[in-house]
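User: I want to check something. If I give you two sequences, will you return the structure for each one separately, not as a complex?

Assistant: Yes, each is folded on its own. Here is the first sequence with its structure:
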Amino acid sequence: MLYYLFKYLNDIDVPGAGLFNFISFRAGLTLLTSLIIAIWGGKKLIELLQRLQIGEVVRDLGLEGQYSKQGTPTMGGIIIILSIIVPVLLFAKLDNIYIQLMLLATIWLGIIGFIDDYIKVFKKNKAGLHGKFKILGQVVLGIVVSAAIIFSKQIVIRPNPEQHQNVPNEQIIKSDVKSMKTTIPFVKSHELDYEALLKDIGIKNKWLIYLIFTFWVIFIIAGVSNGANLTDGLDGLAAGTTAVALSSLAVFVYVSGNVILAEYLKIMYIPRIGEMTVFIAAFIGALVGFLWYNAYPAQIFMGDTGSLTIGGIIAIIAILARKELLLPIIAGIYLAETLSVIIQVSYFKYTKRKYGEGRRIFLMSPLHHHFQLKNIPEPKIVARFIIVAIFLGVLSVITLKIR
C-alpha cells in the first residue's frame, strides 16, 4: 500500500519518494517492520494465551527437561503469519503474481495449521486435524501453484544466457517464455525442462504432462511442510534453521529477478520474481522476532500454525524461483529430520518381521531427539543444527558459480 503512495509522490517529484522503487530498500523496511511486529505482538500474544490457559500438552518421551515445557503457550505461529502479512501489504507491489501467490499460501497453510492446533488445544484431541485433511489442503495449494506456473502469463522465464551466446541482446530481451524449466545444481548446462524430459520418455499428451508436474509440486510442498513440522521439536530449532534457509533463498530470488545479475551469473532470469525478496524479508524478520521468545527456554511455541506454514512457504519459494532441486541442500535440516523418521520406522518394521522384535538405528527420532538422549544440552543441539544450516546455505549459494 505504501509502495503505491510513494510511487504517486515520486511521480509528482517529492524528494526521496523514489527510494520505494528499489526492492532492496523496501525489503530492508519490511524486515525491520516485521521484526518489530513480531517482538511487540509476540509479548501481547503470550499474555493473551496465558490468560486463556492455552498451553502445550507434553507427551512422556523420557527426555530431560521435557516437563518444564508443560503449559508453555502454543499457537505462536499466529504472530509469525501476522508479522509476514502486514509488512508485505505495506511495502510490496500487491499486483505482482508472486506476492499474491505467497500471501495466498501463507494464509491457506496458516488456516490448516490453526485448525490442527485448535483441535489439539481446545478440543483436547492430541491427534489434531486428521492427516488426510492436511494432505488435502496441501494438494489444493499445490494445484494452485502449479496451475499458476503453467497458465499465468505473468510467470515466465528468460532462459540461461549461455544458451544465447550467438544471439544479439535485443533478441534475448524478447525471449521471455512460458516454461517448466528448473535449475540443476552443479551442472554446467544447468537447466532441466520437465516438459521436454517427459516427452523424451514417451509422454506426449500435454494434459498428462501438466498432471505429472502438478503431482511433483504437491509432493515437494507436502514433503517440505511436514519436514518443518518434524523439525519443530526443540526451542528455536525450526525458526532458527528456517531463517538461515530463507536467507539463501533470498539471494537466489534477488539475483534471478535482477536482469543484470542474472546475465552476469549466466543464470535463468525470472521477470517479476525480484519482488518476492520483499516477502522473504518479512518472513525472516518474523522468524527472528519470534526467536526473541522461542529461544531456550521458550516462552511460546509456534505449533502447527507455524511449522506447517513455514515449511510450505519454503517449498513454494523454491518452486517459483526454479530452485526446488536445491531443496535437499537449502532445507537439509528438514531432510535429515524426515529421513531419520523414515529410516527409524522402516528399520523397526523390517527387524520386527525378521527377528520378531523391532530394533532401532537412532535412540529416538526425529534426529534432534537422538542427540537429546545422548545427554547433549538442548541449546547446544539447536546451535549446532543452525551451524549446519549455515554451512548448507552457503553451499547452496555457491552453486551459482560451481557448475
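And separately, the second sequence with its own structure:
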Amino acid sequence: MTRPAPPERRPANPCFSSGPCAKRPGWTPDVLSGAVLGRSHRAKAAKAKLAEVIARSRRILGLPDDWLLGVVPGSDTGAVELAMWSLLGARGVDVLAWESFGETWATDAEKQLELHDLRVLRAGYGALPDLSTVDFGRDVVFTWNGTTSGVRVPDGDWIPADREGLAICDATSAAFAMALPFDKLDVVTWSWQKVLGGEAAHGMLALSPRAVARLESHTAAWPLPKLFRLTKKGALDRAVFEGATINTPSLLCVEDAVDGLRWAEEIGGLPALIARSEANFAAIARWVEASPWVDFLAEDPATRSTTSICLKVVDPWFLDLSGEARQAATKALAAEVEAAGAGYDIGAYRAAPPGLRIWGGATVETSDIEALLPWLDWAFGLVKAERAAA
C-alpha cells in the first residue's frame, strides 16, 4: 500500500513524556552555569541553593506558613514511602488505588509494612473508587492525580476538615498544575521531574502541623532506614526542612530546579502554570471531540487529568482485535510518531490499557500539542490500513 502523506508541521519540542517531562520553554544547558559544583552539599553556598528551592516552592504553591517543606531522596516515590514508613501504624489505614502508583502504596502497606488494620479501596483504570466510602477516622493514602491512568480526584470536598486521621497525598503530577487544598491535606509529596520539567531522583515532602505532631508522638513498629529518619530523640529534625538534606543531593539538579522555579515566578506563578496546563488539555479535548477513533481513558469528565492525559482507542476495528494485537497496534502508532520526530514517549503506561499518554504540564507549549495531534490521526490511519491489509 502507498503510505499517506504525513502532516507538514512538527512540534518545535516533541517531548511529551510523563516523567522526566519537557524542559521549560527556552531552557538550555547554560542555565546551569551557576551550579555550586565540586562543593559539599553542607557548604553555605550549597545550602543556600537548597533553601532557595524550598522557599520558592513554598511561595509558588501557597504552602501555609505553619507547614514544613524539605528535599528528600528517591524522587516522589522516596517521599511517599518516607511518609508511610514514618507516620503509619498509629491507627487504621485506607489506601486508594486506581492506577499503578496507588497499587504500589497498597503493596507497601500490605506486604512491606504488614499493616493489620488496612483497607484498600480500588477502581480500574479510568475510574475512581467511591470516595464517599473513605474513612477519615483512619489515615488515608492516595494520589491526587493518577499519572498512569489520567484520572484525578475532582477536588478536596470529599475530605473533611475535622478528620481524625492523616491525609497523605502523592501529588507529583498535580503540584504546580492543579490547585491543592492544603487545609484538607496533611502530607503532600512531589518530585522535580514533573510539572516544572526538572531532573529526576529528588523528592519534596510537605508536612502539616498534624503530621509533625504524629512524627513526634508515634514510634514506628518497624526499623527505619537512615534515609527515612526525620526525628532525633523523639523530636523532628528541623534542619532537613532548612536545606540540610538527609543524604547528598545533586547540586546540578538543584540548580536546574531553581531555574524552573524562577521561570514559574516570572510567568505569573501558580495561576499561570495552571492556565498553561489547562490550555494544553483543552486543545486535546477539542481534538478528541472531533476524532471518532479516540476518547479519554477517564470516564468522568470531572476526573480527567490536565497533565498526564491518557487516551484510549475506540475505533470498532481496534476493539475487534485481541488484547495482544491492541498492544501491538498502539505501540506501532507511537513508534510511527516518534520515528517522524513528531512526538516522543507517548505510549500508554505498560500496565494501563492500550492507548496513548500525552503530558500536558506547564512546560509544554500548546502550539506543540496542536502540532502533535494531526500526527496521531495520520499514524492511526496508517497503522489501521497496514494491519487491515495484512
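Because they were folded independently, the notes below concern the second chain alone. The mean pLDDT is 97. Residues 175 and 190 are 7 Å apart (CA to CA).
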